[in-house]
Amino acid sequence: MSTRLIRGLIMFCGAGICLLLVGGSSVGAASNYYGWAAGNLWDGYGTILRSIDSGESWTRQGAGQVAAVNMAGVSAVDPSTAWMVGDAADGYATIYRTTDGGETWVRKGSSSNLPDLNLAKVHASDADHVWAVGGSLTESVILHTSDGGATWTNQLPAGYEGIGLQGVYAPDSGTVWVTGGPKNGYPTILKSTDSGASWTRQSGGDVATPGYNHILGISAIDGQTAWAIGGDGSSMGWFVLKTSNGGDIWTLQTDGALDGNNICAVNTSTVWAVSDVAISWTIDGGSTWGTHHSDYYTMGISAVSSQQAWAVTFGLSGSIRHTTDGGADWTVLTELDGETLPSLWTVSFSDQPVPTPTPEYIVLEAGDYNGDGRADIAVFRPSSGLWAVRGLGRTYFGTTGDIPVSGDYDGDGVTDVSIFRPSSGLWAVKEITRLYFGGSNDLPVPGDYDGDGSCDIALFGRQSGQWRIRGISVIYYGAPGDLPAPVDYNGDGSADITVFRPSTGLWAVHDFTRCYFGRSGDIPVPGVFQWYGAAKSALPFRNQLAVFRPATGLWAIRGVTRFYYGNQEYTPLIADLDGNSLDDTIVFNPSSALWAGRGVTRVYFGAHGDVPVTR
């Protein structure tokens, strides 16, 4: 999509559909990170926690999908993809994968290619290449898949069957380190550079220091630079080792009391580590270290920078710690939805930043706020929750992060002020209703899907293509990257499930039509632009396919007309401002708050950063 950045905020709207893209460094455009935490059995199934706001809040996932076992290891590949491992269930090792941000967790492997053993850690170098380790003191495994979990191979080298393996890290598809308990008097570090076909045990430098007993965590930047953390069986202490030459020589970096549990290397300078009661970090490659006292037992650590890190604890109950200032201050979460957190083992955040959960796409059902048959010029100000309707008044409803979803929810002919809150799934219609439906991976797509004259609450799954219309239907229609455009295309009085695919120009109207109109970079702006039938009073009307091309200001209405109005600086809008039951083409300038309706009006209303809520 070709667009132009306007002070960090870009908006496109059409046919009650607004596109909001966040970029630059302006307020509200800060990046978020998505991550998961793994923990013990809780309320009947293994614990999988998910955050989409850099750890500020968490939701539980996996109900009805994951087994009633402890979850132990997690690896986030990207904001949508993660792997989870835990105790064996149904006779084979437990391995789950999500590719839709955790909406669904699918168990991988089977009893035919996975042993009946508990797994401790997992690491994915990409979407297809994954390693998992675990077992017991009598039987251990190094499981590997190169096809996204369809098939698995145990690549444990001979002689290590009785070694407790608890650390694994693969910086690329061919290189992998595995760590664990002692053999021949010192802890195990195995390395493969050929995807597990052969292994070399590493013993150079401080690895074989007397007393060093086990290494529970390892993290690598590449095939040469890695850090490992373990415990000293003789002094009951922990230690951190570093290699800069692929593991030929490991040198002691820092140490402390009690056991060492996990480590996360962000880059060659920044490394975070956790021991039983401490979180430690370095930002100078290990020359100096800072320390924060933590709860018993701090088992997992994940970080994306020298400033931002997360740690989880395992004790009588669990906790999640989060710092955004390099370890100077930490927030601590011990409860979720009023319940004490269970013991947590590991945490993993994707290092790929994603936009703060500001809506990428906004669908509005209606914009007549006084019931006079005309759409009203109106804006929503996310920073304060202000709704301002020109000539009618102002009210406050909603807050930062909410998505406006205005529509006529009670069928009285008047548009209702309403919001959807992605962080919790809240739908709130002012003075009418509050309910929970959906979540952060959904786009709200309100519309009159059953033709009864009132707006229905509905969602489109951004990754899954699932449409959920509350109380009416659930279907899959569309794919990642598609833009929902639900209006009435066949004239039956009901909004049609519809997607526009910008990459190809495909329009697909469920059970009605498929055609190609537009191209990559175009914005869908369907509307009622001409009459069908002899009389304009013959309702309902059919919407026509239309696109707006920001690069040139082109409006193209299929089978009707083409003209130029606006440019990359403007937000396109479709609304009936003059009450003639035909839609007007409007552009809104986010910088100046100018509204220009072609042949209808020209007025200033709103302020920079406001979202137009006119349909």
Description of the structure:
0% of the residues lie in helices and 44% in strands. The chain is mainly beta. The protein has a 4-stranded antiparallel beta sheet, with no helix packed on it. A 4-stranded antiparallel beta sheet has the order 7-8-9-10, with no helix packed on it. It has a 4-stranded antiparallel beta sheet with strand order 11-12-13-14, with no helix packed on it. The radius of gyration is 28 Å and the shape is elongated. The chain starts with 8 loop residues before the first strand and ends with a strand. Mean pLDDT is 89; it is low at 1-12, 19-30, 355-359 and 534-539.
Short note summarizing the structure:
The chain is mainly β. The protein is built from no helices and 59 strands. Mean pLDDT is 89; it is low at 1-12, 19-30, 355-359 and 534-539.
How many helix segments? 0
Annotation, overall tally of beta strands: 59
Tell me the β content: 35-45%
Low-confidence stretches are 1-12, 19-30, 355-359, 534-539
CA radius of gyration = 28 Å
Per the principal axes of the C-alpha atoms, what is the gross shape? elongated
Q: What would the average pLDDT be, to the nearest integer?
A: 89
Q: Which oligomerization state do the chains in this entry correspond to?
A: single chain
- Class by alpha and beta content: mainly beta
Order of strands in the sheet with most strands: 6-5-4-33
In whole angstroms, the N-to-C terminal distance is 23 Å
Helix content: under 10%
Largest sheet, in brief, is: 4 strands, antiparallel
